[in-house]
Design a protein that fits this description.
The protein is α/β, with parallel strands linked by helices. The protein has 2 domains: 2-136 and 277-321, Rossmann fold, CATH 3.40.50.450; 138-273, Rossmann fold. The protein has helices spanning 15-28, 41-45, 80-90, 102-113, 138-159, 174-183, 197-209, 247-259, 279-297, 317-320, 329-336, and strands at 2-7, 33-37, 49-52, 95-100, 118-122, 162-167, 187-189, 215-219, 263-267, 303-308, 311-316. The chain is elongated. The structure holds 6-O-phosphono-beta-D-fructofuranose. Residues 10, 124-126, 168-170, 220, 237, 243-244, 273 line the site of 6-O-phosphono-beta-D-fructofuranose.
């Protein structure tokens, strides 16, 4: 059996650990062969593929990024089912494992609906896919954001400034919530809860009055109550979604103006997606890789592997798509009670 593997969409620390797990176990335990597809669906439709061997995966479990490369390409814009079938046949691929987020899995679902043999592995640092408790990459992003906030706090203390730390999180505030709690932020602002500048400044002033240099953690998808759209100054991505980033820079002067406290903003951006995955993410990615391989061996097409509690399970693509895992009100309320 020959299996094609691709990574698609924004990268996340742990992608290489998934690839390694599938190939290592596939070659060593099951005598399978693999085709590496470069740059996501783009490599599949342009036939940019290579024989993926054990030597390619040596030592990659701890490496960030993806040895296969990635892109935000929709195969249905480039020949769709017919082209995918053609290239799979040309390289004797009996199955595909696609590692990606919402867009990637949606394309995979359409292809399995017409009979193509595909298994999915979920990926998003935002941790906002409802069908899985956690995605690999999230823990790493939280760790990086927490370390950055710890650093911002010491310089904030030195200068008696309010520090605004902007983290990723398009629709869901998981990274902001977890890193903000870990770093002891005085306010955490997430996409799920619009908030007024007066409320934010009240929290900042309270913390400052207690002699603290206030730290505000904000997710890129956060909106002030006066905003109707997310802050975006860099146009749209290939899926037509606004490119985010910069809400921290919007908030900082407003906070300074309202409170009189000197304020600085730092946008962490792609730093959160780069570099070495944490041990937790390496293990989760490895287990998901093994899980995906098992589904291929079982010919369980149209399923995505997922983490439920501590178990690796599978869910049909249709159940995995279309429903976002946002921060529940109760989780936000318990931290909000301590802001200021
Ligand atoms: O969806 C994950 C994510 O990291 C978002 O948090 C962010 O808005 C987006 O990807 C950035 O995408 P790109 O790498 O295309 O700039």
């Amino acid at each position: 059996m020959t299996i094609g593997i691709l990574t698609s969409g924004g990268d996340a620390p742990g992608l290489n650990a998934v690839i390694r797990a599938i190939v290592f176990s596939g070659v060593q335990t099951h005598g399978l062969e693999f085709v590496g597809i470069r740059n996501g669906w783009k490599g599949l439709v342009t036939e940019d593929v290579f024989r993926l061997e054990r030597r390619h995966i040596m030592g990659i479990g701890k490496q960030g990024g993806t040895i296969l490369g990635t892109s935000r390409t929709n195969p249905f814009d480039h020949g769709g089912e017919e082209r995918v079938r053609e290239v799979m046949a040309a390289h004797s691929m009996d199955a595909l494992v696609v590692i990606g987020g919402e867009g990637t899995l949606a394309a995979a679902k359409r292809l399995t609906d017409v009979g193509l043999p595909i298994v999915g592995v979920p990926k998003t640092v935002d941790n906002d896919l409802d069908a899985t408790d956690y995605t690999f990459g999230f823990d790493t992003a939280v760790q990086i954001a927490t370390e950055a906030m710890d650093r911002l706090r010491t310089t904030g203390d030195s200068h008696d400034r309010c520090m605004v730390a902007e983290v990723m999180g398009r629709h869901a505030g998981w990274i902001a919530l977890h890193s903000g709690v870990a770093a002891g932020a005085h306010a955490i602002l997430i996409p799920e809860h619009k908030t007024s500048i007066e409320q934010i400044c009240d929290w900042v002033t309270k913390a400052h009055d207690r002699g603290r240099a206030p730290l505000v953690a904000v997710a890129e998808g956060f909106l002030l109550d006066t905003m109707t759209d997310v802050h975006s100054e860099r146009g749209l991505d290939t899926f037509g979604r606004p490119r985010l980033g910069g809400i921290g820079e919007v908030l900082a002067p407003l906070i300074e103006q309202h409170t009189g406290i000197e304020t600085r903003a730092t946008t962490l951006g792609h730093i959160q997606r780069g570099g070495t995955p944490t041990a937790y993410d390496r293990v989760l990615a490895t287990r998901l890789g093994w899980g995906a391989l098992q589904r291929v061996l079982d010919r369980k097409w149209g399923y995505m592997v997922a983490l439920k509690g501590t178990e690796i399970v599978d869910v049909p693509f249709e159940a995995a798509l279309g429903s976002l895992k946002t921060v529940p009100d109760a989780r936000y309320d318990e931290v909000r009670a301590l802001f200021g």
